[in-house]
Amino acid sequence: MVATPNGFNLDNSGRRIVVDPVTRIEGHMRCEVNVDDQGIIRNAVSTGTMWRGLEVILKGRDPRDAWAFTERICGVCTGTHALTSVRAVEDALGISIPDNANSIRNMMQLNLQIHDHVVHFYHLHALDWVNPVNALRADPKATSELQQKVSPSHPLSSPGYFRDVQNRLKKFVESGQLGLFKNGYWDNPAYLLPPEADLMATTHYLEALDLQKEIVKVHTIFGGKNPHPNWLVGGVPCPINIDGVGAVGAINMERLNLVSSIIDQCIQFTNNVYLPDVVAIGGFYRNWLYGGGLSSKSVMAYGDIPEHPNDFSPGQLHLPRGAIINGNLEEVHDVDPRDPEQVQEFVDHSWYAYGEPGRGLHPWDGVTEPRYELGPNAKGTRTNILELDEAAKYSWIKAPRWKGHAMEVGPLARYIVGYAKGHEDIKNQVEGLLRTMTLPVSALFSTLGRTAARALEAEYCCRLQKHFFDKLITNVKNGDSSTANVEKWEPRTWPKEAKGVGMTEAPRGALGHWIRIKDGRIENYQCVVPTTWNGSPRDAAGNIGAFEASLLDTKMERPEEPVEILRTLHSFDPCLACSTHVLSPDGQELTTVKVR
Amino acid sequence: MPQIETFYDVMRRQGITRRSFMKYCSLTAAALGLGPSFVPKIAHAMETKPRTPVIWVHGLECTCCSESFIRAAHPLAKDVVLSMISLDYDDTLMAAAGHQAEAALMDTIEKYKGNYILAVEGNPPLNEDGMYCIIGGKPFVEQLKMAAEHAKAIISWGACASYGCVQAAAPNPTRATPVHKVILDKPIIKVPGCPPIAEVMTGVITYMLTFDRLPELDRQGRPAMFYSQRIHDKCYRRPHFDAGQFVEAWDDDYAKKGYCLYKMGCKGPTTYNACSTVRWNEGVSFPIQSGHGCIGCSEDGFWDQGSFYDRLTKIKQFGVEANADTIGLTAVGALGAGVAAHIAATALKSAQKKSQAANAAKTDEKTEA
After folding, report:
1. Of A174, A202, B143, B187, which sits 20 to 30 A from A347 (CA to CA)?
2. In the predicted model, is pLDDT for residue B353 greater than 50?
3. What is the pTM of this model?
4. Contact between chains at A181 and B95 (C-beta distance less than 8 A)
5. What integer pLDDT is reported at residue A150 of this predicted model?
6. Which of B76, B198, B251 faces A482 most closely, judged by CB atoms?
7. Containing domain of residue B235, as a range?
8. In a domain, B13, yes or no
9. 3-class SS of residue B345
10. PANTHER family, per this entry (chain B) (predicted)?
11. What's the average model confidence in pLDDT over B209-221?
């Protein structure tokens, strides 16, 4: 048994369970746990199993292009890296964006939060709580009654509607081709919903699949496409022309009406379906409060959604900024991404080398050299890993720390920070939910709390999206149609050397890009992303990261079926392509290995 | 092989009438650009064909292709997954994980040898013994080769699988390698784009299900029906290009009027894709319509063709006759001769108009002096 400095006990003496691939996430991930005789997880090892090297690719390129490269870090949280990138470049070069650009960017970022949270809950996470096969046993009439009870305003609630869905599901299952549901854990006792709730939630899986393609049209209008809309250093690329010559080819009344109708659809779905589902499903799992991990100790948020353009001071951000350490909600620390002592990355247990052990580097000075090697106690071979050795290097994810602390980031972290700071909207939402569910504040620090915070945040983001739509209209009404500042578009207007930082709150948590520009080109580019925080391996001191901490002490009904592991890992909405793109431009030339 | 429902069976069992089914076939024919005579053929195919198993694997990628796929409006993604194909392995969406996921993969390969479609999103990195992308403790390239061996055909989704995309941009640190350079003995359909348009993705799949053959491919292996024309050929702003009317700076009066984005670096003239016709997200818009130039994301190596804001040609006085030849000569290397000639010819035409472009050229000279 080992006690970690951040307050967890690890015991790797029990049976080792390996889950690889961890599915229903973005990217590639592996998880190993040790369970004791009672099936309780006593040790957890999480591993990022992909690496793409985007930062070395960025070296020497035009900083105005960086948004497009970094956007391709992730197609799920599409756009958030691009926004972070243009902010970093604007910060470095001292570029101010117009008010309309701030409103449009915020709408796009909020739209992503809503879309991502909905798709995460229904298409990546729901099957950890919901059993679609069990839905076949439901009484459609009772399902209809349940639906009307949990959400009286949702129009799709008749017995016939649920019977149709159930019939479709039945034929699907009877065909013998279970597709995506094949080999699921459908007779595992970890599933607790009655058949009617399973049928209701499975129906909403399909409704959400139809709806999500509507949500993203806000990106399409302002950015031309989704996934991967277009962005612009200095503002947004879409011009506004409400009633002049050629208005039909720009952001005009028709486009704005479409945005407005989508905003309303988002509000309706979140209020009538998403939030009520989380409350209903959560009610059946109210005693399953595993998975808190780091959330009751150390959480962090950079904050986002500035009310005014170019003002990132904490009081002006709708999503809160701050850090809480060792569970002290009385004190919320400010976070300064420029301070070399605050955000640092370590690689002692990552497949990189810094030259000296225990060294942490601020992203502006990041050095990375990939070094793939397995520890002496790993089982298997270099290209056929059976078990990892967590005492050595074991992940493509680095270990970022805030003043030496492993931190959890994401919707729950944002909501804990907001709650602790007395953020009015967040406090009201949290207290309302806890009251509805008759749960204490401590219930927040759990897998369920993470899932609930995401739903609350989606609802809050819907309201904010409307706020910025109204703001845009007001501003245009007052005669301002500007969307881009081109004063410093040309590289010859730039200083010879500059450095900047961009921060956002991605759906999965705090996201930062650090850039150095020299002679009009990118000299150094570093991203520290949410899943790097949450999925981080151990550091030299032995602190474990949020994924690993969250799995400890969880009881598995059947250790060979990883339902509980998936449930808790998914509550973070892991994004592995994001977390493992990292390589510093200062990195050594990589060794080429023979073609297989 | 077990008893598998046909497409038609599935639709009927879901309560879809014969009449609606035939209507669906007509719409499918129309969507694929086929005449009414094809409707009975489509109907027949759907009445007799079983749901085809699809294995969807993921290498180095960002999952934008999967995200695009679920945006499909016709047919809806849920109908594709529930009624048209049997998506037996897809690590982004499947319920099972770990051993159970691997078992689902092996089971499908075994049961449907030679009869399943392999869809590949992303690509295998070959450096570091392939361990820059690990699935089940092994290099992704091994899973790819194993799944490819018994596949009927392979779909390379997106720029990653087709060409390498962003992780293969210089200096390609992981040696990310497109699928066709690793799998040499299977028919491969490239569906490039970062990501491809949703309805192009479902269009390719439904074509294969409907006609039980690969779509006609161009020399690069792309379906000709979607990739045979340039964005520029069908761009609604094309008349402004021909008239020499260009956006000169972001958010200027010309941008507000929807003039051509060529001078802002638009890669529409060298990019083969369906964006300006099919458009994105149910036809709502496409990059040029929303004010940003095309970045050429469906072209091989588009990351390494200079800045997205560089003009395709370096000429300073675009639209002036004396320099029209230069346009042809300096057009980007990837450009076909025909394309270059086209730009030159159009430039000649617009030169005669001597409109805004000439003035713009002067401004250009001033700012670059």
Report:
1. B143
2. no
3. 0.90
4. yes
5. 96
6. B251
7. 231-368
8. no
9. helix
10. HYDROGENASE-1 SMALL CHAIN, NIFE / NIFESE HYDROGENASE SMALL SUBUNIT FAMILY MEMBER
11. 93
- In this structure, of A459-468, B12-21, B75-84, the range with the lowest mean pLDDT score is B12-21
Task: Tell me how many domains chain B contains.
Answer: 2
Same-domain check for residues B184 and B330:
no
pLDDT number for residue B322: 37
Is the distance from CB of B38 to CB of A179 less than 8 angstroms? no
Helices A99-119, A195-215: axis angle to 10 degrees equals 150
The whole-number pLDDT of residue B10 equals 64
Q: Are residue B181 and residue B238 in the same domain, yes or no?
A: no
| List of residues 6+ apart from A99 with CB closer than 8 A | A308, A309, A471, A475, A480, A482
In terms of Cα–Cα distance, which of A203, A314, A221, A291 is closest to A556? A291
CA atoms within 13 A on the CB side of B345: 6
Query: Distance from first CA to last CA of chain B, Å, rounded?
Result: 73
Suggest the residue from A16, A133, A164, A175 to mutate for an interface test with chain B (most B CBs closer than 10 A). A175
Task: Tokens 């799709």: give the residue.
Answer: A156
Clarify whether residues B235 and B363 are in a common domain.
yes
The verdict on B223 and B241 lying in the same domain is no
Cβ distance of A593 and B96 shorter than 8 Å: no
Residues in chain A: 596
Provide the pLDDT confidence category of residue A7 given band limits of 50, 70 and 90: very high
**A77-112: b or e for each residue (b if 16 or more CB lie within 10 Å)?**
bbbbbbbbbbbbbbbbbebebbbbbbbbbbbbbbbb
Q: Which helix (H) or strand (E) holds A344?
A: strand A343-346
Q: Give a three-class secondary structure readout of A167-207.
A: HHHHHHHHCCCCHHHCCCCCCCCCCCCCHHHHHHHHHHHHH
Which residues on chain B are in Cβ contact (under 8 Å) with A183? Answer: 95-96, 100-101, 103-104
How crowded is residue A594: how many other Cβ atoms within 10 Å of its Cβ?
A: 7
A354 pLDDT band, cuts 50/70/90, is confident
CATH code (residue B176): 3.40.50.700
User: Residue A120 pLDDT > 60, yes or no?
Assistant: yes
* Inter-chain touch A241–B256, beta carbons under 8 Å: yes
pLDDT tens for A84-98 read 999 999 999 999 999
Among B62, B84, B177, the residue to mutate for chain A (most A Cβ within 10 A): B62
CA distance A230 to A233: 11
Task: List CB contacts (< 8 A) between A61 and chain B.
Answer: 307
